[in-house]
Amino acid sequence: MRLSRFFIDAPLSLGQHELPEAQAHYIGRVLRHAAGDAVQLFDGSGQEFLGELIEVGKKAVRVELREQFAGQTESSLQVHLGQGLSRGERMDWAIQKATELGASEITPIVSERCEVRLKDERADKRLAHWRQVAISACEQCGRSVLPVIHAPQPLAEWQAGVQAELKLVLHPVAAPLESHAKPQTLAFLIGPEGGLTDAEVEQAKAAGFHAARLGPRVLRTETAPVVALAVAQQLWGDF
What we know:
Number of domains: 2
CATH superfamily of the largest domain: SPOUT methyltransferase, trefoil knot domain
Helix content: 25-40%
CATH architecture of the largest domain: 3-Layer(aba) Sandwich
CATH class of the largest domain: Alpha Beta
Number of strands: 12
Structural class: alpha/beta
Mean pLDDT: 92
Low-confidence stretches: none
Strand content: 25-35%
Order of helices and strands: EEHEEEEHEHEEHEEHEH
CATH topology of the largest domain: Alpha/beta knot
Largest sheet: 7 strands, parallel
């Protein structure tokens, strides 16, 4: 039976801990774990902890952590994904898969053809939701460090501020990824459902981005980051 693995948004150490309310509810009421069950916890620091549930009640879940070890090594290629903001499940899918494929930072990008506009409280809720998507993806894929999920940014602001050795904007008419030398840090810019305008692509180039293509077919906004990150990890990362 696969060992249950959970992220805890608090520093962990060996010994006994009372779990935060959200994780306690999920472990005790949803998954119906019982005292004596083994669990594996991580706190995003890169460390993993093995332990045993010693109390599972209606209001509290306690665990005793008995073993600490280094978690999964992060990819040597640090990728910052600028993902065009898209609707609902498409954005969730992009964040989930980018997390599984090792992206270290993800920024939702607001561009001219975005069909989604987020403001104030709604934006805060979406950011919290995307962070939970990334947490769940880390729990599933074994990553011990969470990617940073930034608040949505206007395209021009992100282009001007993102730092990376190699910056690429995906475009169907451009050189392939493998034409570039191996970077240590990489920024990908991927457009929304309607794509980037020609002017936005030119603005990206003016900001130091190189146009790059993934093949002869035009990919959906939620498919493009999966392919781009997989190819980049194969060329320069840990695949």
